[in-house]
Amino acid sequence: MITEKTVLVLGAGASHAYGFPLGIELKDLIYAITQRPIEAYAPLIELGHTVDEIRNLGRALARSPVYSIDAFLERRAEFIELGKKIIAMTLLPYEHSVHLFENPIAVRSSRNKEFGSVEDWYQYLFNQLGGTLPELRQNQLVVITFNYDRSLEYYLYEAIRNSFNLDEQSLRDVMKVVQVIHVYGSLGRLHWQNGDACVIPYEAWNSSQGLKARLIDDAASSIKILHENPHNVPELKIAQEYIKSAAKVLFLGFGFNTTNLKRLLPCELIKRPNMYGTDLGLNVHQKREIHKIGMDGFRPDAIEYCFPNMKILDFLTQSPNSGLL
After folding, report:
1. Which phi and psi angles does 220 have, rounded to 5°?
2. At what angle do helices 23-34 and 51-63 cross, to 10 degrees?
3. What pLDDT score does 267 carry?
4. Whether residue 15 is found in the same domain as residue 31
5. Is the pLDDT of residue 186 over 60?
6. Local confidence band at 160 (pLDDT 50, 70, 90 cut-offs)
7. Within this chain, do residues 129 and 167 fall inside the same structural domain, yes or no?
8. How far apart are CA 105 and CA 86, in angstroms?
9. Distance between CA 151 and CA 155 in Å, rounded?
10. Do 114 and 213 fall within a single domain?
């Protein structure tokens, strides 16, 4: 059970072990879609976009050296509406429970080949939340994610539903204990979640034959590109309040893009103590830049202790700083 106030900040690396693309991979996937025959993006045409518009986005995206589609769209406001729909169209097929639960031996074998090792940190997290319903209800955990996918909340919902004999209302009440805040929006609201966003079931893509255009449009309406209103994002303000009051903040699979970091951690927060996490894949220059903007854990003499070069599951199970041991 997680008894002290703990905030997890998730980047694309947190979902990667479950089949989702990293930021640069998503950018490449979207470009590839724009270069395919019209049948590949027929739902976008049905939604009123033209072949020229789609091809123009692809051409500009390919020649822009930014690392993510989000960063590209923040600079190219004329592509925002199309961009959000093509993000939704690209990511929705990845929301599949087979990557989370089904046929675990085969899935683990597949992950070994594709990712090098089993990295099921969702399973580890669930088991740290406690073995009884009273323990689950007492957890002090908040998740702040920069990802659009809903894999973690879906995993927890299914894990609790199948581990305990609960009616739907009791299950919804338990799910309120672990808050998941999508800073840049998501692919839609899951059926037990509150809010005004469209309800998009997990795995909806597989059952949406003939309705893909509607599904894409609904999912895109829940995605946020901060160019639209970068200084008035309620989710960011809520996230900052949780970080202020947390005993510990853990960055998992986070790329430490300086724009995202400055938005999440303004001057009064970026120097706060007890921030730890993984820095897998960051080069020396990136680490120096993060230290320059004020993140003390990236000091040369502190980084191996605060932000070791480890996979998420290794960090959670081996680092004394994870707080989840």
Report:
1. -65, -30
2. 140
3. 84
4. no
5. yes
6. very high
7. yes
8. 33
9. 6
10. yes
